[in-house]
Amino acid sequence: MPVRFxxxxxxxxxxxxxxxxxxxxxxxxxxxxxxxxxxxxAVRSGTADAALVPLENSVGGAxxxxxxxxxxxxxxxxxxxxLLPVEFVLGARTAAPLAAIRSIAAHPQASAQCRRWLQANVxxxxxxxxxxxxxxxxxxxxGEYDAAIxxxxxxxxxxxxxxxxxxxxxxxxxTRFALLTRPGPPAAPTGDDVTSLAVSIRHDQxxxxxxxxxxxxxxxxxxxxxxSRPTGEQLGTYVFFLDCTGHVAEPRLGEALQGLRxxxxxxxxxxxxxxxxxxxxxPVAAPPGxxxxxxxxxxxxxxxxxxxx
Amino acid sequence: MPVRFxxxxxxxxxxxxxxxxxxxxxxxxxxxxxxxxxxxxAVRSGTADAALVPLENSVGGAxxxxxxxxxxxxxxxxxxxxLLPVEFVLGARTAAPLAAIRSIAAHPQASAQCRRWLQANVxxxxxxxxxxxxxxxxxxxxGEYDAAIxxxxxxxxxxxxxxxxxxxxxxxxxTRFALLTRPGPPAAPTGDDVTSLAVSIRHDQxxxxxxxxxxxxxxxxxxxxxxSRPTGEQLGTYVFFLDCTGHVAEPRLGEALQGLRxxxxxxxxxxxxxxxxxxxxxPVAAPPGxxxxxxxxxxxxxxxxxxxx
Amino acid sequence: MPVRFxxxxxxxxxxxxxxxxxxxxxxxxxxxxxxxxxxxxAVRSGTADAALVPLENSVGGAxxxxxxxxxxxxxxxxxxxxLLPVEFVLGARTAAPLAAIRSIAAHPQASAQCRRWLQANVxxxxxxxxxxxxxxxxxxxxGEYDAAIxxxxxxxxxxxxxxxxxxxxxxxxxTRFALLTRPGPPAAPTGDDVTSLAVSIRHDQxxxxxxxxxxxxxxxxxxxxxxSRPTGEQLGTYVFFLDCTGHVAEPRLGEALQGLRxxxxxxxxxxxxxxxxxxxxxPVAAPPGxxxxxxxxxxxxxxxxxxxx
Amino acid sequence: MPVRFxxxxxxxxxxxxxxxxxxxxxxxxxxxxxxxxxxxxAVRSGTADAALVPLENSVGGAxxxxxxxxxxxxxxxxxxxxLLPVEFVLGARTAAPLAAIRSIAAHPQASAQCRRWLQANVxxxxxxxxxxxxxxxxxxxxGEYDAAIxxxxxxxxxxxxxxxxxxxxxxxxxTRFALLTRPGPPAAPTGDDVTSLAVSIRHDQxxxxxxxxxxxxxxxxxxxxxxSRPTGEQLGTYVFFLDCTGHVAEPRLGEALQGLRxxxxxxxxxxxxxxxxxxxxxPVAAPPGxxxxxxxxxxxxxxxxxxxx
Lengths: 309, 309, 309, 309
Hints:
Largest interface: A-D, 43 and 43 residues
Structural class of chain A: alpha/beta
Radius of gyration of chain A: 23 Å
Pfam families (chains A, B, C, D): ACT (PF01842), PDT (PF00800)
Domain ACT (chains A, B, C, D): 197-274
Helix content of chain A: 25-40%
CATH superfamily of the largest domain in chain A: ACT domain
Largest sheet of chain A: 6 strands, mixed
Shape of chain A: elongated
CATH architecture of the largest domain in chain A: 2-Layer Sandwich
CATH topology of the largest domain in chain A: Alpha-Beta Plaits
Keywords (chains A, B, C, D): Amino-acid biosynthesis, Aromatic amino acid biosynthesis, Lyase, Phenylalanine biosynthesis
Site (Essential for prephenate dehydratase activity) (chains A, B, C, D): 175
Number of strands of chain A: 15
Oligomer: homotetramer
Order of helices and strands of chain A: EHHEHEEHEEEHHEHEHEEEHEEHEH
Number of domains of chain A: 3
Protein name (chains A, B, C, D): Prephenate dehydratase
Strand content of chain A: 25-35%
């Protein structure tokens, strides 16, 4: 059980809020890091047991630095995912009518996600870019700007007054975080798990990517996420980040993983961990003929053929 | 070790010649059957230990009755294949110049395979259809016709004189025979084996057959033969007979067989047995990345992932 | 319009019956040939305008000699298919109780299709193999044997009495015949057509056959029949006979044909002709998104992209 | 010929440098925009004829805001790509030894790309995040910080002294920019073109993405880039950005585009334009059997079949 947690800081951002949903972290030691690489370095070097970093956002997409860190340096393993609905608020030092707001501090990604709300409600305010949601909250608290777009967690920490809640244009935005540890045995399957992989493919993209997807499709593996990243070596070469439904301990996924291992230049296993669901939802069912029972039946049949039984 | 052998008769045909290449049959008891179903019935009922029947000919194609028998009735298993070069001779009761031959008895498939030779060498002779190569030889021996197209084995048995040898238009024609027994454990792999299957596919042909081939291709299984047979139920529904390189005891083929079992309406395993080669030839190599070593490597890798090692 | 028709003889077989369902042939000149090659040679040499030969039977499978003839020699084109339900009768010179029948002449394929009826109804009769259904009827008419299994057409022609009708074990057996002419422009599409092809594939079977099926599947082409034939060159090399739903004049099939032409060692176009249906039945619908309308829509869209419209 | 160019500002960044490599832009009117959406809005509204914005970087990956803008709002078309090697310099108000530098202003992505250089050469300097490379240069020019990581173009514009050149950890980093206009007829093919697409796929990712890649592979289309973006609707639904080798006017690509149009929920054509190569390099060759000549040959063959010629 990890005790010392690193996370992408500063304090008062969504990552801290996500971390505190994990009971062990709420009770343990939480240390903000200045960057994703720094948070992961703390785990690699042993000064932290685990690190929570953002992986992707349903509006903004993948977090490149996290993906890049996962495929370079010594291996790390995702042991848990945390989904956190993204809620932006407009906060200010004191209560004020919206019409009185002349300047608003915001991280560019935050203001982008609230663009339509801003045009409709504070069309005359100047939006000033700052470097983080936490920095925005601080600049409103100090009075540098009239208001700030920030996370709810930034309101309490800086003693702000909420002028408007849920101001994001898309109400359903979600950020997904990964809790990373040094490699070890994966937790036991729960029946509703995710397995994350980073797959480097050879040469020509069409054929190689077709082959990867075929290995998965033949075993009925569902792909809940696919993300390509250039390798940094040259335009046109990629690593694919895949999230598959299932657990490495299961025969279906085990067979598919072996297939990928055989055909890919490199497969990095990034962990099998429980799927985090914000609402109760059934796990994705296997296609007809490709359920775990079907795999067990075909294995028993092969055994009979081999023994002549 | 089988002792009592049934075979497709009558005596004096290629099937008897093929059977006698098997040492146990040369020393054992050999009983001709009037038809392929009768030969196989002898095995099913236990009056014979094994039966040799023709499977396919490189010129004439598959032998439908054999294929149909393999997928109906109680299961049988191929334990051995025998390849026999097909050599036709022109035999007669006594020596005679070809110009003197006015009538030739021949099984229609035999005369078809010698058509060009007949046109070139005995253009004026009448070719009379008879019901087997053996019947042809007998009718020449009795003087009913001037000559017969028959197998070399039919010459000695009927005291014929050979007027011409190797008269088939294609010198390299080969017939392949299968030795069938009741089901049991397959013989151990030799490193150069064949596995035969009968696969019934569902509904639409393009998609279902694509899926079958994909299961094989993904595991690097080579297909040395594919033969479609209507199921007899209606035009457009098929059973496919597949000969795969490899042995059911091997991981590669075992995984592919399980895959077929899961997606096909029915898979009938027809045996794993040594490849018979008329000339020394290397077994077909697995595609790059799909060798037995690659399968062993990927299995060991998966084991490490699962144990966290 | 063809006037002189050759067909696989002798007179009094199913092929003649099939030919007479074609009005032009009923009124035209009909010449039996001794063999399929002879019938086709009559067309190739110009002594006949068209030839009708059997292509496949729902019980017995493909007719190898017809397939082989279609891929060798100068090209011929299927301009029409004829489906004929196969009905066997037991005929004799005079009326007699079944119990009195001691010998029955039959072509081996005919007796095979009636095996269960024979066992149940004339268990003690000896079945004697003869070379055609017509020969069986003649031998009953001459009194050489007590009865014959033959086609209904053979009854009238030989003045036989029908002892039993519809004696085939499978009531629904159907034979499919092809009417072949010298190549020319295909008839106009009817909206319910078949296109026949012979496709030679390269090297390794799994990959090459996968590629062929993929070319068809991508264009939503339905495969109503697939038949493999060894090329005769060596065991393991094949020609595939494909019957596709659609007409060469249609964009969908045209695009698929071009794809096959590019990837196959050889594609022989064997004709586009109306589907013969024994019962009224709707043509096979294209998969979703792959209808003729979808093809027209995508072509129009591409045109707009190219013109910048 | 466009005359009025918008570009992602501020002045003095890589985008301005890239724009000035286009002769018409060097001579025309160049207006910096505060954001990618603003630059593109200038084109959509007609206040600019074309806009240059960054598309991807070989190290940092895709520029999400550009991709998102390309698939929302009224369509725009890429008419040109510009590749620019990314070179970072360390600039300061006056010459100084590196050991004297205590604070460095940098855009976070710039400092990330120079991380190893910074550790090795100025290990004790504090790196301060600022909002753009141009802002970094300005803050060094005003003396707010001792030095700045910036683009070479930022040096001249702000009168800085270069303390170190080519300080990026990866010497070969390249940024790719797109010149966007309102839709119109694409420029004529040059024989070395790129076609960009945005493709929305349905439902399950494995099957739908497999189908997309198969449409391309069957026509031998090379994929030089694939980038997935969440649609913003929910985690797990994607738009794929594809760069294909070839031009919409060519038969191969035209056929593939039609195929995508039929199977995808939506295909947005983003333009066909000349490939920009920093070094002379041959275009990617088509796979065997899938060259333009092979397409022409198969089209001619189909024409002969249809006409019966």
